[in-house]
Structure formats: structure tokens, C-alpha cells
Amino acid sequence: MKLKNKVAIVTGGGKGIGEEISLGLAKEGAKVVVADLDKENSSNVVKEIVKNNGDAIYVETDVSNEASVKNLISETINRFDQIDILINNAGIRHVKKLENHDLSDWDDMISVNLTGPYICCQAVIPEMKKIGKGKIINFGSIASFMGRPDRVGYVAAKSGILGLTRALAIDLKGSNINVNTICPGLISTPFNKKYAEDPTHGEQWGKETIVGRWGLPSDIVGAAIFLSSNESDFINGSEIKIDGGWLAAKTREGEL
Ligand SMILES: NC(=O)c1ccc[n+]([C@@H]2O[C@H](COP(=O)([O-])OP(=O)(O)OC[C@H]3O[C@@H](n4cnc5c(N)ncnc54)[C@H](O)[C@@H]3O)[C@@H](O)[C@H]2O)c1
């Protein structure tokens, strides 16, 4: 087991990619704190971990709210005494034409997708410093590297995540805390269901990756375990794209 007895907070751990990461870290021996707004799904994830002889708790959390994140940290410490790993996975997305994208949409995108990870990092770093080590994994996107239509706030937030990761990594020099970003491509989760199942384009969009299909939440888990483990100690301030090659080569059928 690569993460035996490590304590991991997974934000947005109740659904989609976060759910698979919670289950995957637990299989590697981590004690998991599922930090999510969604009580029902998160409680099911906790039950599944416990059923498989793992250890996990749910803490109702809004990552964009400082008081809620403070509560998350104190609940985690009360139960597990320390925090080794923070997976900043919680995210939301509005897809709207620019003329309909108003300040509240912008504020939503920035507060959950960028300010949320910042608040969680600020809250968790003192705990990691107490134990002299830590792994922080932020969540970017293919939208961290390119403009995407009708997603002005989302693209801005996900681009900002790369800057947050690099700036934090350097500020934490000498503390034995690594900060990296995972950038998923098209992953079939509740977040993207409507696109993955689109009768006209869904299958074709999957084929535009080099691998030739939509990704699954399980495609992200290996990298999350790796970046949480000692095997990745020399990776810092960096990012891993998990997009089936979509960014490397935008392809059209017949060209491969
Ligand atoms: N699915 C994709 O194709 C894709 C692509 C690129 C990046 N991402 C990123 O991966 C991450 C996970 O995406 P997903 O597809 O699994 O999403 P999802 O919608 O399936 O799940 C997100 C989870 O986050 C929780 N959440 C939302 N707002 C929250 C908040 N304020 N506080 C705490 N929890 C909150 C939700 O309740 C949900 O359980 C996100 O950061 C997303 O931007 C996803």
C-alpha cells in the first residue's frame, strides 16, 4: 500500500472524479475525509470505504467559505490527528455566452474553482508544517491551457490554478510540501454527462482524443495516488495533463 495511514482530504469527494479518488486513496491505505456540499453522495462514498475495511469520514464543506474550511480542518484533526494530503478537486462550471455571463457567474467560477483551493491550502499548510511534510494536488483542466467557448470565468479560474500551484510551491520551499496540478480532459462524470451523452456529438468528441474515447473518473486515480505518494517527491510546482492526448494533438477522424 502506497499511502498507508496517511490522512487525505478530498474536496468534492462525493461524486465524479473526487469519488473515485476517495475510493482509490482508501484502497492504498489512506484515511479519507470526504469534504463536499453533497451529504447523500458523500455518505455513500464513506460507507463504501468502511465496508472495504478502510477509514473515512464525511465533513460537510463549502470550499469557498473560510469558516466552513476551518471546520473541515478541525474535524479532520479531531478524528485523525494530522493531514498529509489535500486533493483540491471540488469544482463547478457555468457554460454561458459572454453576453449572458454576468458578475455572479464570474464570482461563482472564481470563488469555488480558484479561491476555494486557495482557502483550503492556507488552512491545511500549518497542519502539514507540524508534521514536516505534505502533498497538495490542485485541479486544473484542459481549460488551463486554452480558451474554451462560453466559459470565460471557468477558463480564467482554471488558468489561475496553474499560477497558484507554482507560487505556493515556491513559497513552501524547504517545507517538504509539494504542490502540483492535475489537468483532466474530457472525463465522463455528472459534470460532463450532458456532453458525453450528446446524441449528435458525444461519441465524436471522445474520438478527438488520441486514445479515441472519453476519459473515466478512474483514469485520474493513478496520477492522484502517485502525486500523493513519496514516489513523486521530485515533482513540484508542476502539472500532469490527463486528457487522452487531446491537447497534444487535436485530431480529426481519418488523420491518425
Ligand atoms: N469532468 C471533466 O471532464 C473535467 C475536465 C476538466 C477538469 N475537471 C475538474 O475536475 C474536478 C472534478 O470534476 P467532476 O467532473 O468530478 O465534477 P462533479 O460535478 O462530477 O463533482 C464535483 C463535486 O464537487 C462538489 N462541490 C461543488 N461545489 C463545491 C463546494 N463549493 N464545496 C465543496 N464541494 C463542492 C459537488 O457536490 C460534487 O460532489 C473539478 O475541479 C473540475 O473542474 C473536470
Describe the structure.
The protein has a single domain (7-188, 215-242), classed as Rossmann fold (3-Layer(aba) Sandwich), CATH 3.40.50.720. Helix 1 links the parallel strand 1 (7-11) and strand 2 (31-36). The longest helix is centred in the middle third of the chain and has 29 residues, at 103-131. With 256 residues, it is α/β, with parallel strands linked by helices. It is built from eight helices and seven strands, in the order E-H-E-H-E-H-E-H-E-H-E-H-H-H-E. Helix 1 packs parallel to helix 2 (39-51), helix 3 runs parallel beside helix 4 and helix 4 runs parallel beside helix 5 (152-171). Strands 3-2-1-4-5-6-7 form a seven-stranded parallel beta sheet, with helices on both faces. It is globular and about 55 Å long. Bound molecules: nicotinamide-adenine-dinucleotide. Nicotinamide-adenine-dinucleotide is lined by residues 11-12, 14-18, 36-38, 41, 61-64, 89-92, 112, 116, 139, 141, 184, 186-187, 189-192. Nicotinamide-adenine-dinucleotide binds next to helix 1 and helix 4.
Short description:
With 256 residues, this protein is of the alpha/beta class. It is built from 8 helices and 7 strands. It has one domain (7-188, 215-242): Rossmann fold (3-Layer(aba) Sandwich), CATH 3.40.50.
